[in-house]
RNA sequence: GGCACCAUAGCCAAGCGGUAAGGCAGAGGUCUGCAAAACCUUUAUUCCCCGGUUCGAUUCCGGGUGGUGCCUCCA
């Protein structure tokens, strides 16, 4: 599989450190609020990568953290009059509510910063011991950027360029404006932990280094996140981690593009964000997931209600195909013919094309194109009775594709209210009597109740609208 | 100022050296009592502009134009 590596700015063959195992780390949410659609993109995209790798037979160790101690949580706790752990716990649960609805599989591990304080402190101590970090007089500990000559290798910037562009940091505790905090000295009323250099709490960047290396090893395969994390977050992680261990940190760096609103980056600071929680009031989040996968993950995508509606309409095609196939599968099958053989061969081709798209740096847009091509072929093929083997081949492909893409996860709701079923019966009688006026009237009534009627060869069906 | 990214139909979006996938929306048709779903046909003489390389460029190179992002918390 080819993966675009931000470090080398090229697509590279993904070769895991340990054959058959992929160790990956995705930067997770800071849990002080509900997450927005922009935050959702990496969750969905890298979940899809994980699912694909598992489909290919890899054992994927997938870690996504929760940042549960930082300025924003402290502020939030103050605003709500509750403790920082209470804020964290609440929004971790809210994260799961939205992530589950988006079809994001649970991580193998969900480390929380506060549960790894020991490793974080040890890592900071190592950096101090090796001369890469220093404790300032206010209890902060800073990483000395100039002590790590390779600094800037991920973002493609030299220390000098960064220096000239850096805004003046008001803090006087740093020796160099580029230095960043590994540890923040305790302030009154804030959560803090005891360390050899005084009480305090971890800085943001060091958490991810400590947790990822602790769980996945000092060198692991994939480190992923949004493009806005390239600098400084991931650059800093590399500096800290490699300075401490002397070994390469992550081997492949993957970064997803932004979600935009009117071609402008959606972000909490700009205030133009849309909460996944709010979108869920209007749309099935499966449509949102499908929308997110309808573009290649590195490209920016605009978000709008209209586009989710388009995605929803497109998804309906796949749902309908799924239903038609289920119905075909439920019928007695005639014995296979040469046409079945040919169809089975074409299914194998579709599978090949789909995998090829997925393996080209997770080109889900292209992969979806293959899915639709397959859908049309299958819909046409099953318009008449077909052998079991060919139906099963189609079923297996559709299942695999949907499973990797995380769509069509819901079971069909077959429980219709008695009132609706009675109306359907009455309509059947009316149609038998060729009383079309009454039949149409009932169809309208059912529509008003939220059900569509579809007349097929084997009678009428109800569908939820 | 430094470092990147993007520009393909009404709306999305692949393709990235061999003559424009797919979806939504629209139009026509088959099926249907009428619909719906499904299927078929149709919708870009052309990929922001100008040069260059090439037998051949949407695809590579150079230069423009327009838009975006990172360099500060941010997915």
Report a brief summary of the structure.
The protein has helices at residues 37-55, 71-80, 84-101, 117-129, 159-165, 204-216, 230-245, 276-282, 285-293, 305-330, 338-359, 364-381, 388-405, 418-432, 436-449; strands at residues 2-5, 10-13, 21-26, 59-64, 133-135, 141-143, 180-185, 200-202, 220-226, 250-256, 259-261, 264-265, 301-302, 451-456, 459-464. It is α/β, with parallel strands linked by helices and 465 residues long.
Top keywords for this entry?
about 475 residues, 15 strands, alpha/beta, 4-stranded parallel beta sheet, 4-stranded antiparallel beta sheet, RNA-binding
Describe this structure in words.
- By secondary structure, the protein is α/β, with parallel strands linked by helices.
- The protein has 15 helices and 15 strands.
- The chain has a 4-stranded parallel sheet, sandwiched between helices. The protein has a 4-stranded antiparallel sheet with strand order 5-6-7-8. Strands 12-11-13 form a 3-stranded mixed sheet, with helices on one face.
- Helix 14 packs antiparallel against helix 15 (436-449).
- The longest helix has 26 residues, at 305-330.
- The radius of gyration is 27 Å and the shape is elongated.
- The two termini are 40 Å apart.
- The mean pLDDT is 93.
- The structure holds one RNA strand of 75 nucleotides.
């Amino acid at each position: 599989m080819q993966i675009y590596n931000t470090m080398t700015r090229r697509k590279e063959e993904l070769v895991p450190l340990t054959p058959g195992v992929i160790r990956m780390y995705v930067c997770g949410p800071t849990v002080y609020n509900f997450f927005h659609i922009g935050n959702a993109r990496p969750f969905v995209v890298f979940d899809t990568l994980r699912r694909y790798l598992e489909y290919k037979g890899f054992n994927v160790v997938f870690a996504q953290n929760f940042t549960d101690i930082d300025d924003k949580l402290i502020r939030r706790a103050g605003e709500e009059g509750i403790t920082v752990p209470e804020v964290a716990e609440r929004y971790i649960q809210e994260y799961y509510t939205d992530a589950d609805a988006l079809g994001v599989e649970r991580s193998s591990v969900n480390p929380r910063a506060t549960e790894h304080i020991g490793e974080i402190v040890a890592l900071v101590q190592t950096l101090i011991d090796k001369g890469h970090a220093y404790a300032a007089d206010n209890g902060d500990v800073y990483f000395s950027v100039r002590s790590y000559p390779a600094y800037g290798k991920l973002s493609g910037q030299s220390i000098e360029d960064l220096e000239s562009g850096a805004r003046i940091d008001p803090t006087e505790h740093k020796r160099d404006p580029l230095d960043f905090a590994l540890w923040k000295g305790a302030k009154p009323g804030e959560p803090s932990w005891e360390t050899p250099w005084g009480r305090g709490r971890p800085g943001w960047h060091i958490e991810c280094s400590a947790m990822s290396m602790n769980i996945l090893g000092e060198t692991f395969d994939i480190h992923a996140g949004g493009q806005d994390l390239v600098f400084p977050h991931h650059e800093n992680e590399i500096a800290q981690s490699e300075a401490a261990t002397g070994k390469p940190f992550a081997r492949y760096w993957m970064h997803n593009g932004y979600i935009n609103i009117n071609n402008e980056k959606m972000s909490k600071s700009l205030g133009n964000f849309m909460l996944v929680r709010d979108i869920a009031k209007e749309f099935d989040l499966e449509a949102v997931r499908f929308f997110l996968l309808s573009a290649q993950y590195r490209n920016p995508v605009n978000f709008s209600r209209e586009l989710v509606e388009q995605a929803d309409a497109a998804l309906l095609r796949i749902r309908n195909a799924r239903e038609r196939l289920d119905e075909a599968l439920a019928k007695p099958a005639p014995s296979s013919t040469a046409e079945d053989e040919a169809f089975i061969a074409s299914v194998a081709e579709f599978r090949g094309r789909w995998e090829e798209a997925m393996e080209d740096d997770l080109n889900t847009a292209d992969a979806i194109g293959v899915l639709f091509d397959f859908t049309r072929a299958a819909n046409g093929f099953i318009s008449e009775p077909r052998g079991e083997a060919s139906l099963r081949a189609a079923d297996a492909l559709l299942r695999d594709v949907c499973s990797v893409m995380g769509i069509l996860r819901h079971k069909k709701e077959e429980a219709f209210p008695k009132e609706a079923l009675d109306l359907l019966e009455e309509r059947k009688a009316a149609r038998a009597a060729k009383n079309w006026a009454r039949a149409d009237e009932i169809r309208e009534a059912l529509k008003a109740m939220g059900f569509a009627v579809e007349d097929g060869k084997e009678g009428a069906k109800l569908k939820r609208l």
